[in-house]
Amino acid sequence: MISSEKIFSIFLIVFASTSLLIVVGIVISLVANSYPIFMRDGPSFIFKSVWNPVKEDYGILPALLGTLISSAIAISISMPLAISLAIFSAEIAPKSIRGFINSISDLMASLPSVIYGLWGLYVLAPILNQYIMTPLHQYLGFIPLFSTKPIPTNLFTAGILLAIMITPFSSSIIREAYSAVPYHLKEAAYSLGMTRWEVIRTLLGYIRSAILAGAFLALGRAMGETVAVAMVVGNTFTLPRSLFDMGYTISSLIANQFPNAEAYSYMVPALYGGALVLFTIGLVINLAGLYLIRRVVARS
Amino acid sequence: MKAYAKYVAIIAIVIVAALIAAFMSPSLQTSVERTVTVTTTYATTSPATRATSTLSGVVNGAGATFLNPQMQAWASKFYELTGGRIQINYQSIGSGAGQAKFREGILDFAGSDPPLKLEIYKEFKEKGGIVQFPVTIGTIVVVYNIPNVESGKLKLTGEVIAQIYMGEIVYWDDPAIKALNPELNLPHEKIIAVHRSDGSGTTRVFTAYLSKVSESWKNKVGSDFTVEWPVDKLGNGVGAKGNEGVAAAVKQNPYSIGYVETAYAYSAGLKIALIRNRDGNYVLPTKEAVASAARALVKVLPRADEDWSHIFPDETVDPPGGESYPITSFSFVILRQVYDDPVKVAILKDFFKWVLTEGQKPENIVEGYDPLPPEVAAIGLDGLKLLRTG
Amino acid sequence: MTLNKRKIMDKIMLGIISALAIASAIPIFSIIINVYSEGARHITLNFLIDLPPPPIGGKGGGIGPALVGSLILISLTLLIGGSIGFFTGLYLSEFSHTRLARYTQMFLQIMVEFPTIIVGLFAYAILVAPLKRFNALAGAIALSIVIIPYVALNVREAYKSIPYTLKEAAFSLGVSAPIAYLRILLSAARRGILTALLIGMAKAAGETAPLLLTILGTTFTYFGGIDQPINAIPLLIYNFALSPYEKWHQVAWGATAVLLTIMLTIFVISRLMVREAKI
Description:
The complex is a heterotrimer.
Chain A: H1 4-41, H2 44-47, E1 49-52, E2 57-60, H3 61-92, H4 95-110, H5 113-140, H6 155-179, H7 183-191, H8 196-206, H9 208-224, H10 227-232, H11 250-257, H12 267-299
Antiparallel strand pairs in A: 1-2
Chain B: H1 2-24, H2 26-32, H3 47-52, E1 57-63, H4 68-81, E2 86-92, H5 95-103, E3 109-112, H6 118-125, E4 130-145, E5 155-156, H7 158-165, H8 175-180, E6 192-196, H9 201-213, H10 215-220, H11 230-233, E7 237-240, H12 242-252, E8 256-261, H13 262-268, E9 271-272, E10 274-276, E11 282-283, H14 287-298, E12 328-336, E13 338-339, H15 342-356, H16 374-384, E14 388-389
Parallel strand pairs in B: 1-2, 1-3, 5-10, 6-7, 6-8, 13-14
Antiparallel strand pairs in B: 3-12, 4-8, 4-9, 4-12, 10-11
Helix pairs in contact in B: 7-9, 15-16
Chain C: H1 3-39, H2 45-49, H3 64-94, H4 99-112, H5 116-131, H6 136-160, H7 164-172, H8 177-188, H9 190-206, H10 209-212, H11 233-242, H12 246-275
Helix pairs in contact in C: 1-12, 3-6, 3-9, 3-11, 4-6, 5-6, 6-9, 7-8, 9-12, 11-12
């Protein structure tokens, strides 16, 4: 007679392996479905810029650049904000409102992306257009970065919206690492006569890898975000020449073009190819972040 | 223990309530009560007959965005007329997406600005065939934003429009445009050519028109839901999403030009250009101009079960007729001939019959759309007879 | 640097940090204020039950089918994704020494950051294309894949944080493993498990990308069967907000207000539960 223990552990193993099966299944699905376009065009498919369904010619470079540019904007703006939020919560704010601040941060992290997208489309985009993009274009338009006449929905808006969305993720990681710094290090720093800011700076250096880990994870999140970006990025297939160009990201390209892809012969593989590229980049960044987190945990 | 139990109880009650609400909802009740009495009459379509028929069910279609407001209005009216028994769900995902999903057999019907692509038509020939027919008329206007030129004053020809979008005409005061508009004071400003960034039936029809009137356009660019716009490479092109995106872009950018379905031009308050038709007259898309174009087209239109892709829109744009508006197109509904559910066949026949007859009456036509002449509606009515179970 | 300069620097930097911190919180307040000021006025009982209005003309104006659809999808997702996540989390906690557990843990952390549109593509390939129909089940499966890592990792934490003495005591009673884990230790871990399910519920209510390619959406149909298209609130918001019709924009704001209220409710409930956790 098989013991209920044995049955139970088999039961659990079955469930646990579903996650493995899902991930493997997705990877296989991506590779199998994108196979045709890679067979036909090779890696050039990733590096050329064309979306011509009439001639069945596809190249996802603009979408790839769009993903990278919007994520770059997002992470560069988000990191100072995330670090500040973390320090503010852990160090500066009075203890009584610390819980409130952390709750706000968690709420930001759990807000659905379609709500961010709606707000981004109707509130953020016009504000950015009026107060930041148009003045920058008017006065600094000679710099290539600002050379396109801004339309509210573009890569820049997408980048800023992403920055707002990903800040709570890296912030919570940094905040936890900061709070976990052994108190005697803080004591030592103060006893040397450092000001509060200098102590903070020292501790930040101490938790370098946590900050880096937070950055990687937030970056991965930014690259994979679909709906909020699709609502504000402009969805135009052009090679971006400036920050204010409308563009595509790989995920918004898939969201926009997949519905009509089956009308053509190579669009479905092209979109799966884009998905595979996105997945791969995201995986690399994600694994880097996880590795760094493991080092942080190991240290403490 | 007590505290959390309260929360669990609340959540559980909410879920159960939702499920109850769902099962109580009319749609679920009717789809459970579905009767297979397929004896509906086709001759009369009065509300009285509708109310006594016991036909009920759900049909799922999707496709053209242009057709959406009109289709929703029809579906809504039909829902009322049948007392909520027949639900025609139409989602506007774009003509291209509609045809793509239809090809995969995922939709009951598709809405599309251009008719079914030839390769998809051929695929279905072996699987029982399709019927496709116009349900409403759409016109595309060329809109412009030149500060001191009023609406209805700018005259353009197809060749000139093609040259603008090919980047061969760059400034508004180009000799070619001036020649057509000697009395206008055209500025020396670059023309910002706005086009669609998404796959669009509107683009398909517009580029079909350009291909017909300009051999150069036909060879260099061609016609499809999405094309590569030569003007983009020169940096004077702007892509916008949807008809409303193009309308907004033209409105916000001085010295721009664009193409939209007429309803959007009116709702955005844009200036509309006169276009020279085949007979040499400059026309706006008035009701008379549209009707004249539609009448001219009837002579060449195929049957509903035939392939339209070689005729439409490429042959039917720029029709003859002194008053005809050149960029007139139909919006189509595409159905399979064979369905495995007899109830669905009955519903589709019923609904589209209504659309092609009662639905074309003025009280059922949404503002910005034009009704079909009876000769054109007859194409669909004939085609519907081919629907069968199999 | 002189002491004074350092003191000034200290004040400046603390000021900047505080300003940036507050700046990063401004959006959430702006979102809440904007959503409720634009959308709250639409929320009536009819709005929650009625059919959506046609884009031009016509009457009515509600999100009934979408709301019911969302509730059904959430229930299905919790059933499928919640149970898979729960048992996976339990396995990870109690069998953490096995190789399967280590791999699963890593894969779950990868899954957390999956671009959700790719999950949608996968669900389309395995359920919509073969069935030849957009269907609710595909949407539920896609959502389940999204929530499994959250549920699993939280359940793992919940079970892991049970003091060892409690576990020893449970097993010393001589009951079988299933009963030990599912009856006895479950109540010790209940807060964490409930939190996990609430997180799953929140995600199932708010995620859009997994639904874009799988459920199509409906106009009139509240629920036609899990093998038929269905509507959902985030999908409705996405479609209506991007449409060109002003009337639909208004409905989108109203639906967003409803969704935000659901989210805030779930959030507050889970906060209250955590606060009560004083072991």
